[in-house]
Amino acid sequence: MLAKTPPMGWNSWNTFGENISEALIKETADAMVETGMRDAGYQYIVIDDCWSLRERDENGSLVADPKKFPNGMKAVADYVHSKGMKFGMYSCCGVKTCAGYPGSWGHEFDDAKYFAEVGIDFLKYDNCFHPSMPSHMSYNRMSLALKSTDRDILFSACNWGNAKVETWARSCGVDMYRSTGDIFDSFESIRRLSESQKDKLAYSAAGCFNDIDMLVVGMKGKGNVGDNCGYTGCTDAQYRYHFALWCMMMSPLMIGCDVRNMDETTYKLLTNKALIAINQDPDTRPPLFISENTGHKEALLTFRHLSDGRFAFGFFNTYDSDKTFMIPYYEIGLDPLCGYGFDVTDAFSGEHLGIQKEYIQVKVPAGDCRILTGTLVKVK
Question: Rounded CA gap, 167 and 157, in Å?
Fold first, then answer.
């Protein structure tokens, strides 16, 4: 199984779009190691669209753009591997990629052979310019092609949540599947994408994970899905909301900012051990959403079972003002007279908050969140 827990890594698209190169990927791999991102769990360096020439060669093979990648893709893969990381590339199930480069339609087995010879460990497979046919056929075909290579290649299906992808992705040998349209560097985009997935997360588990799209944490309005698209970015609080919610919802964590130039706040958030532990919990159980009966229907109040008798509570404030939220234990099925409560710790500060009886109540700043982890204990 290639994805026992949600995959973690970095993808070039959110910040760099078509402006990618061998030098950028090598510098990014260096930064992932030097900053400790690799050791925090981020394994994959993934090149997105725009890496090839606009046309295949005379043999019908993909060709890396020699201006961007003068030493070819295998040299890049070898460099990433030398850093103790895994390497990923991009293709599309149509005749062209979304940016107009050669897609893999009709070339699946040849392209899979090429990717295996390069030495990739991850394939992102997009959804543009494909024939009018059931989506699962195109993804199952590439899944078969990848498996024909005898190389372990994690298969990331990016079909934007179409055709009820959550119902068939696992059956088609997919390891993670995009369940949404593209993310942008704005709080509204983060809210819209995440809230659309609340009723779909039950399909996500070890071996095949629901991908709510790549992270915009730390982009600060710069780059391909930031100012290039007219977005000005998010506050640090909104980035906390974003990262913590992706962790609670068990989404793959693919960094989208320029890790060569992260500020300290971004670095600390992306390497928060308590939040990553929630995301990477081996039980891979999705959260419960319990906002409806608490008087705050617009907020996201969540509860999640973790392994080893641990639990997580998430309070996500979508309002424009500070709010106090309460999760009464009867909303998670715990009778307040049963004699049990939760001994909890704040996942951001590490502060031990002690045993909370009958309910948990916290104040959350506007556009921010609180995450608590704890164990069920007998209350005296």
Answer: 13
Q: What is the CATH number of domain 288-378?
A: 2.60.40.1180
Inter-residue contact 44 to 9 (CB < 8 Å): yes
As given in the structure block, the two tokens for residue 140 are 């199952």
- What value does the mean pLDDT take over residues 31-58? 98
Segments of the chain assigned to CATH 3.20.20.70: 8-279
Q: Which of 43, 7, 85 is nearest to 246 (CA)?
A: 7
Contact 283, 305 (CB under 8 A): yes
Taking phi over 0 as left and psi of -120 to 50 as alpha, with beta for the rest, 207 belongs to: left
Radius of gyration of the chain (CA): 21
Residues 6+ apart with CB under 8 A from 83: 29, 30, 32, 33, 38
Indicate if 126 belongs to the active site: yes
Give residue for tokens 């059956």. 171
pLDDT (0 to 100) of residue 299:
87
pTM: 0.96
As a whole number of angstroms, the distance between CA 55 and CA 61 comes to 9
Q: Beta partners for 360?
A: 327
Contact 216, 14 (CB under 8 A): yes
- Range name among 49-58, 77-86, 220-229 with the lowest pLDDT average: 220-229
Helices (H) and strands (E) in the chain — how many of each?
9, 16
The one catalytic residue in 30, 182, 236, 343 is: 182
Residue ranges, comma separated, of all CATH 2.60.40.1180 domains in the chain are 288-378
What value does the mean pLDDT take over residues 328-342? 90
pLDDT score for 222: 94
Catalytic residue among 126, 185, 281, 368: 126
Homologous superfamily assigned to 8-279 = Aldolase class I (3.20.20.70)
Distance CA 214, CA 252 (A): 8
**Mean per-residue pLDDT, 19-39:** 98
The secondary element (H helix, E strand) that includes residue 77 is helix 72-82
Provide the mean pLDDT of the chain: 95
* The two structure tokens encoding residue 23: 């030098």
> 211 catalytic, yes or no?
no
